[in-house]
Amino acid sequence: MKKSLTFAVAASSAVLALAACGAPSGGSGAAAADKAPKGLVNAGQVTLCIDPEYPPLEYYANGTGGDIVGFDADAGRALAKHWGVEAKFEVTAFDGLMPGLQSRRCDIILGGLYMSEERLQVADAAPVMNAGPAVLAAPDTAAAFTSPTDLCGRSVVAQSASSNAARVQKLAEECSAAGKEAPKLTEYPKTSETVLAVLNGKADALVETNVAAAYMASQNEGKLEVANKVFETDTQFGVFTRKGDELTPAVAEAFKALHADGTLAELAKKYNLAPEILDVR
């Protein structure tokens, strides 16, 4: 499952070439060829399968089209620059991401995918960041949430059928053991509805994936605040390559370099993500 919540998925596929600032800054000709790894689908460019429906990792700048922005999108551009090639985005619905990689429509998937056992059976992946549930609440109450049991007896919202909703449901036993009431959970089909429930005072808190929670707070500055350390980070987002592909070690080493030189940390800050959630190794 991609992410712990479900965003609307684009139904069509399109190819969108987006080279940062036109020509790659890493050089051209022989110099670029020397830096680029072997095995790219198209020489002189790295192609990324991406579903731009998950801010702040990947989304359209104007909401429905145009430039694709976000941490993952910009990290893809940074990877291209590191290799001295162009970045090309293959816009793909979520369920087409892995098939797109396997059929060589793209070189990598950099798009908020969990490194699940199921995926790792058919593809390689290098970790990029840790993910897990976070709590969103009004600024004057966010500080009250420091552990999962602080949600006991509270009105809590989460997206329907998400792992975040399941996590809140599991709190019933923990709350009972602590002599407290279970959280009063309400599930909504759309994430926008969960946010409105907290903004309108219908709920005390929203449980959402930490990366999405950061974006929601940035879009509601002064009205919502993130309590990041309530839950343990329990999953990892990764950058995926084909199983056993010669690109696998090259991608892993490139991301280590981008982490070491501070590039990824700067991108995290740009999109209101805590650099501490980066996990590149």
From TrEMBL:
Residues 45-275 form the Solute-binding protein family 3/N-terminal domain. Gene3D superfamilies: Periplasmic binding protein-like II. It comes from the Bacteria. CDD domains: PBP2_MidA_like. The keyword Signal applies. Keywords: Signal. The keyword Signal applies. Residues 1-19 form the signal peptide. Pfam families: SBP_bac_3 (PF00497). This is ABC transporter substrate-binding protein. It comes from Arthrobacter hankyongi.
